[in-house]
Backbone:
């Protein structure tokens, strides 16, 4: 009994030491790929869809974040985005992304001048409101998050000429994401209230329609290994500008987490018709680094 | 864990018969040499924290008893060697941990075992685990399953059984 008492005293001291560190912040800790990747608007998601996951490898005990650079090569345009996101306690995500939509030689054909580039700043906030995409495998309830994105386009005058009503706008969305571990699947869906034309690069609202519309974003991904996921995505979009038809977007992607610092996403995207040029299909590449 | 030990100690001290061995028979650990005493508790398959798989596909995927034992021993060895979580096991009965983990895995994979351990809440009580600790353990388990050459999708099916235990195991 004496030996046991001594052991108990020792054990109590160990427990006491642990309790003293109850509020320590610990970076990292999420499982590989369970933060998704940075999408075109800077939020954690797939390539073109926003997910309910929070950016960064932190758990509820810490802070994480990412920087990303994204490049899309289309037949008649080029799209670039650079930004960052911070995740707080796997609960709140704040993000900023700068998008460039470069018309290149097509700019001259559009009467805008060769190399004319639309820019947009996207400031995003996302709050996880319920569920856990990874742990709650005994329930169908997904992880659910609500988000808002303030978007400011820089080509107000041209946007006005194209029939756009505003050069800034706010998107609101709710996203639900579930990892179905027993199927090695990730499913995600989001509904976005938006007025954005081509995500906002061509302004907000238009001469055809100037109210908020509910749009859908969906992703399905298969986990091939711990480091590699392949999937498809679909995103519906408004069609607000008379004479400048806008199509829904789709892609097929591969996301590869080289480690917990760097991941690469490659996709084949179909962005449909953009500013009268049809068949904008091409390669999407995104590099992400964070913790 | 600690409360359980204190309770066991208190009960042992208060026991009317001074002879230790007779008393020990009342303890679940008495049938398992080399393990420390634990307070009596009601053993039940429900303590395993999840419903077992149907059929023998997963049991075979894990190479049955020998495979499960190797995975658990490898998992424990890796965890003890990982400085990020090794401290958690310092005051722990590792003999009992290996045995009950092997039982639990075997039971959940629908092997011919009963789980005799405590429920997940009691087993992790006062360990002060954070999500990060839980996930590091998952990563060590993934490494152990890789080493046993268990297919990725079969690993995930098993992890889907274990994942909800996060709610009982993580205390802070």
Residues:
């Amino acid at each position: 009994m004496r030996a046991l008492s001594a052991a108990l005293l020792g054990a109590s001291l160990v427990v006491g030491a642990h309790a003293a560190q109850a509020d320590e912040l610990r970076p990292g800790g999420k499982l590989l790929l369970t933060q998704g990747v940075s999408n075109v608007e800077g939020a954690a998601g797939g390539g073109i869809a926003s997910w309910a996951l929070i950016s960064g490898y932190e758990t509820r005990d810490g802070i994480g974040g990412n920087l990303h650079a994204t490049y899309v090569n289309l037949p008649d345009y080029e799209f670039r985005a650079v930004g960052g996101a911070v995740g707080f306690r796997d609960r709140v995500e704040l993000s900023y992304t700068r998008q460039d939509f470069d018309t290149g030689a097509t700019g001259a054909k559009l009467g805008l001048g060769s190399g004319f580039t639309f820019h947009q700043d996207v400031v995003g906030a996302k709050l996880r409101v319920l569920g856990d995409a990874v742990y709650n495998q005994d329930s169908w309830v997904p992880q659910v998050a609500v988000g808002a994105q303030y978007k400011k386009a820089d080509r107000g005058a041209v946007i006005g000429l194209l029939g756009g009503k505003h050069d800034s706008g706010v998107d609101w969305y709710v996203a639900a994401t579930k990892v179905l571990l027993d199927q090695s699947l990730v499913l995600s869906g989001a509904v976005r209230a938006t007025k954005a034309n081509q995500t906002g690069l061509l302004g907000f609202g238009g001469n055809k329609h100037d109210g908020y519309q509910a749009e859908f974003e969906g992703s399905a991904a298969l986990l091939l290994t711990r480091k590699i996921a392949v999937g498809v995505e679909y995103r519906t979009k408004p069609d607000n500008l008379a004479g400048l038809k806008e199509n829904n977007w789709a892609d097929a992607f591969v996301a590869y987490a080289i480690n917990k610092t760097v991941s690469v996403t490659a996709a084949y995207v179909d962005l449909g018709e953009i500013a009268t040029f049809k068949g904008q299909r091409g390669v999407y590449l995104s590099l992400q680094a964070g913790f | 864990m600690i409360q359980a030990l204190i309770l066991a100690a208190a009960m042992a001290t208060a026991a009317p018969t001074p002879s230790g061995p007779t008393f020990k028979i009342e303890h679940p650990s008495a049938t398992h040499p080399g393990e420390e005493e634990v307070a009596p508790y009601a053993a039940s398959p429900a303590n395993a924290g999840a419903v077992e798989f149907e059929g023998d596909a997963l049991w075979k995927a894990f190479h049955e008893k020998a495979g499960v034992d190797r995975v658990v021993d490898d998992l424990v060895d890796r965890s003890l060697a990982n400085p990020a979580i090794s401290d958690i096991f310092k005051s722990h009965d590792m003999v009992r941990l290996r045995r009950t983990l092997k039982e639990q895995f075997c039971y959940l994979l629908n092997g011919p075992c009963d789980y005799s351990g405590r429920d997940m809440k009691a087993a992790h009580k006062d360990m002060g685990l954070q999500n990060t600790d839980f996930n590091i353990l998952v990563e060590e388990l993934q490494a152990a399953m890789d080493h046993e050459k268990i297919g990725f999708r079969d690993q995930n099916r098993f992890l889907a059984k274990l994942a909800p235990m996060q709610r009982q195991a993580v205390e802070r």
